[in-house]
Design a protein that fits this description.
The chain is of the alpha+beta class. The protein is built from eight helices and eight strands, in the order E-H-E-H-H-E-E-E-E-H-H-H-H-E-E-H. The longest helix is centred in the last third of the chain and has 25 residues. The chain is elongated, with a radius of gyration of 24 Å.
Length: 224
């Protein structure tokens, strides 16, 4: 990526399972920003104690869920320097629920947490969509390269469907449809295909529910 776009800014985002010393060091050496989850511990909770206490007091006063954000410098025992931690002090009817993330980015702590870190959940939904709708979990071979190729095919299929959804189906009822829905309702349709030297023609039944959407997609991609 850097060879193709030398000035590109790369951001690594992941949950606390990726908060590992070697990963953090690699990102910092290679000018890669990161925002990753940080598992809570007693020391982090002590450093965020004032925010946790205020969230608890505000909940007791209002009876409504409270969320307070802040940041501080923190260094685990295996790190060679402190790093920036964003703390979310949350208190609900179930009690205190602190969360922490580690980042190289500057900016409002709540915005970094809500709009950047938590957005990884949407990416996880897209991965699940590829797995369930395009069979990306069918990796039953004992050979790595065969499984890798199968996963590559599923990923390529997802990219094609994503373009179909965002370009071909823009402003239609299927513009936000899942991959499985598009595959089963729009693409998995009976048709007669006639090909000659000049063109390829598709004949679908007049009763095909999504006939208009199918023709719209075809016309948009043909003109594009």
């Amino acid at each position: 990526m850097r060879a193709a776009w030398p000035e590109v800014r790369i951001l690594f985002r992941g949950d606390s399972g990726f908060c590992r010393r070697r990963i953090l060091h690699w990102c910092e050496r290679n000018r890669v920003d990161y925002v990753v989850g940080l598992a809570k511990n007693s020391r982090l909770n002590r450093m965020a104690a004032d925010w946790l206490k205020k969230a608890e007091q505000d909940f007791a006063r209002t009876g409504e869920k409270q969320r307070i954000f802040g940041h501080f410098e923190y260094a685990a025992g295996t790190w060679n320097h402190p790093r920036k931690v964003i703390a979310k002090a949350e208190h609900t009817a179930q009690g205190s629920n602190p969360r922490y993330i580690l980042t190289t980015l500057s900016g409002d702590p709540q915005e970094l947490y809500d709009r950047l870190y938590c957005a990884r959940g949407e990416m996880e939904n897209r991965i699940k969509e590829c797995q369930l709708g395009l069979f990306a979990t069918r990796l039953s071979s004992h050979q790595f390269h065969i499984n890798q190729f199968r996963l590559l095919l599923a990923s390529m299929a997802y990219i094609l469907l994503e373009r179909l959804r965002t370009v071909g189906l823009a402003s239609t009822e299927l513009a936000r449809a899942q991959a499985e829905t598009l595959r089963s309702k729009l693409l998995k349709a009976g048709a007669v295909i006639i090909r000659n030297t000049r063109r390829i023609r598709f004949f679908v039944a007049s009763s095909f529910v999504h006939r208009e959407e199918f023709l719209l997609v075809a016309s948009r991609f043909a003109s594009g």
